[in-house]
Design a protein that fits this description.
By secondary structure, the chain is mainly α. It has 16 helices and no strands.
């Protein structure tokens, strides 16, 4: 079962226009380019041209770099990692030549590039970037500044992804202590640290500690933002995930439905964030063997991701795998097999054959083939 771990709070993502489901890759690409041109009419898409922004007037420079950063995130969200990487690298080089290598602005681009690498499992390339950003902020702001705590939080997220839980915990705790001292114990940044610590403990199955911290994070966020704010609903999703891992399915179901209702109203029925909660709610129903309710949720999550991300994004592979496992649970092997195959092809193309999740899908696929053969033999 491939569930979505608690959401990691690092930064905000750009919201961009959606377009209908496409099964043809060329048509999807054409629509992607059209949507890009509509969203960023003044941005030169070629990464080789991004260095020209250094020659702009000062009043135009900030706007140009902001648009290019958004464009890079536009590409990142769709799994067009090489496009995003080219833009961020060029921005980094350009801005270093303008403001200097130790300017706090440079830390932002280092973080963006490190985040991009982390999403691709390129942890060895991400770590030195996060460490450099941390060093820049420590020198520029000092070790007790909230911005330094943000860098600690980001590096902790990398270590969490790598399974380096002790290192991640130490950094999350440091970030929390700095934010509490500098901003007060009820500041939303403190809730970020608590939520991330709760997520870390959840992964380690320390559910009592995780629930306590997540509830504290939720309480702070609700007081700061109200019940419907994205930070609040993300924390509610995390708490629901925690309940799911403890087999508290009725509690999890209620929270997921709360998040789904809010996000559908705020974001619309086809926003990619909905795919997360749809998948997670489907996991609850699947765990309860309520396959009839789980299947349409998985299918809707898959459709949203294909529409928004394209047919070859890793998140699409996650949805394919989850749907395959639902069919496998019901001995619907002929329907599960092509989904596993497609998920495996996507992940191998994006990450390479040695990525841990590729190995997991490959093992599940091999197990499916064995079960299918045994089932067929028993039928005969």
């Amino acid at each position: 079962m491939k569930t979505h771990a608690p959401l990691l709070f690092i930064g905000l993502l750009l919201t961009v226009p959606l377009f209908p489901q496409e099964t043809d890759a060329k048509l999807f690409s054409a629509r992607l380019i059209a949507a890009e041109e509509e969203a960023f009419p003044d941005v030169q898409r070629s990464a080789s041209q991004t260095s020209n922004v250094a020659a702009d007037k000062d009043e135009d420079l900030s706007e140009s770099t902001a648009k290019l950063s958004k464009l890079a995130d536009f590409y990142r969200q769709r799994g067009l990692y090489s496009n995003a990487e080219s833009i961020i690298k060029n921005l980094l080089e350009t801005r270093e030549s303008v403001v200097g290598a130790d300017n706090p602005e440079i830390a932002e681009y280092l973080n963006n590039l490190a985040w991009l690498y982390t999403e691709q499992g390129r942890y060895g390339e991400a770590e030195p970037l996060y460490l450099r950003a941390l060093s820049i902020m420590e020198k520029a702001r000092g070790p007790g500044h909230p911005d330094f705590a943000t860098e600690l939080n980001n590096l902790a997220g990398l270590y969490r992804s790598q399974g380096k839980y002790t290192q991640a915990e130490s950094l999350y705790e440091r970030a929390r202590e700095i934010w509490e001292k500098a901003l007060g114990p009820q500041h939303p940044n403190v809730a970020v640290a608590l939520a991330n610590l709760g997520g870390l403990y959840s992964i380690q199955r320390k559910y009592g500690q995780a629930e306590l911290l997540t509830r504290r994070a939720l309480e702070i966020s609700e007081k700061a933002f109200g019940l419907d704010h994205p930070n609040v609903t993300a924390t509610v999703n995390n708490l629901a995930w925690l309940f799911t891992k403890q087999n508290k399915y009725s509690e999890a179901e209620g929270l997921y439905k709360r998040v789904l209702d809010i996000w559908e109203k705020q974001l619309g029925p086809s926003h990619p964030d909905l795919a997360i909660v749809l998948n997670n709610l489907a996991e609850v129903y699947r765990a309860e063997h309520d396959y009839a309710q789980a299947e349409p949720l998985y299918l809707r999550s898959l459709a949203i991701r294909e529409n928004f991300l394209g047919l070859n994004h890793p998140d699409v592979a996650t949805s394919l795998r989850n749907l395959a496992e639902l069919y496998r649970d019901q001995n619907r092997y002929d329907e599960a097999q092509p989904l596993y195959e497609r998920a495996l092809a996507i992940l191998e193309k994006v990450f390479g054959p040695d990525y841990p999740e590729v190995a997991g899908v490959r093992a599940s696929y091999a197990s499916l083939l064995t079960e299918s053969a045994r089932h067929l033999a028993n039928v005969r």
